[in-house]
Amino acid sequence: MKKIFLSIVTILLTVIACKNDDTQSLDAFYENYYEVNILPTLTNFKSEIETQITYTQEFKEAKNLTNLEKLQNQWKTTVNAYALTRVYNFGKVKNLFYDVNIYNFPVNTTTIENVIAKKEVADIESFATKSSTIKGLGTLEYLLFNNQDTNKALTLLENDDFRVDYLLSVSQETLNQINSLINFWEDGYKTEFSTSNGKSCTDNARCLAFNQIINVLDVNKVTKIGKPAGLEKSDNIDPTLLEAYRSQFSLELIKASLQEVERVYSSSDVNFKSIVDDIDTTKELSKQIALNFADVYSNIDAISTSLYTAVTENNTKVETLYNSFTKLNNHFSVDGASLLSVTVLPTDNDGD
């Protein structure tokens, strides 16, 4: 009887030790998830918006086409860097609207023009209180590209010093927002996130991070392709609903966010594939996900024009791309979520 009692105690201690090891492993995974995936991506975006500010100051000193095109190209680099960060827009970060303040689309061009016409104060303090529809990366795009008209954008900037000041202040406010976001993570949220192991998805690191992968894929499909192309509830085509349509950079941003989803799932040093493959030892789900990623990339590359032009011309390749996102997302929202015991939250198709 004594031997049986000792055996039971030994088993219980082993189970407790294993649970403690699992918890430590979980904490380490999500702590590293922040250090390896989230922080470098946020820091990279910060670096690009700082370059944006430098180029804007150069343009202010010499307002010419060469410097404007330099600014336009940098905007594309900057917004591409931001697209990568959207995979990490979850939990309290999303609740604090950093994403909306940094890049909200569509912008309100009428209000932007009214602010410029009235010569309202353009500084960091005033911008902090203004609507996200007249600041952020979307406003920068409008000021730099106008409505797909570089010559008009240049003329407007050349003839109005306040317009250039507005351009600079929007860039500086965007830097202020990313600095605040990084500080929010560093000042405690990274620890809160990495140790979140509650039953509720809002208090569970795995559920938050994996749901954001699902959200990014769904927003790409519904908001950034389906609605503008008339493939959702309405068959009305409206290419002005596209993200970054003024710069005709919509498709590139979809691809960028897709690449970050793929990286964090399979190729990062801290990735979800390692967890999935530990459970699914056949590795069949990861194989199917890899095939579907390849399919989506192929369908993106098959569109030889801008997405704006493809949608305008009702190119059937847009629908093919839309459908391939459905298949890829199903692997995450159905198969992956089930395998990881993750509750799938409703997707916010009005943003990221």
Average of the residue pLDDT scores:
90
| Low-pLDDT residue intervals, each spanning 5 or more residues | 1-24
In angstroms, what is the radius of gyration? 23 Å
Distance between the termini: 61 Å
Kindly summarize this structure in a few lines.
This protein is 72% helix and 0% strand. The protein has helices at residues 2-61, 65-85, 91-95, 98-102, 109-117, 124-127, 136-145, 150-158, 161-194, 205-226, 250-267, 272-279, 284-301, 307-312, 316-339. Helix 1 (2-61) runs antiparallel to helix 9 (161-194), helix 2 (65-85) runs parallel beside helix 11 (250-267) and helix 11 runs antiparallel to helix 13 (284-301).
Topology of helices and strands:
Blueprint: H1 2-61, H2 65-85, H3 91-95, H4 98-102, H5 109-117, H6 124-127, H7 136-145, H8 150-158, H9 161-194, H10 205-226, H11 250-267, H12 272-279, H13 284-301, H14 307-312, H15 316-339
Main traits of this protein?
352 residues, A middle domain of Talin 1, globular, mainly alpha, 2 domains, signal, single chain, Imelysin_sf, disordered N terminus, lipoprotein, 0% strand
Notes on the structure:
With 352 residues, the protein is mainly alpha-helical. The chain has two domains: 26-195, A middle domain of Talin 1, CATH 1.20.1420; 199-352. 72% of the residues lie in helices and 0% in strands. The chain is globular and about 65 Å long. The termini are far apart. Its main location: other. It is found in: Cell envelope. This is Lipoprotein.
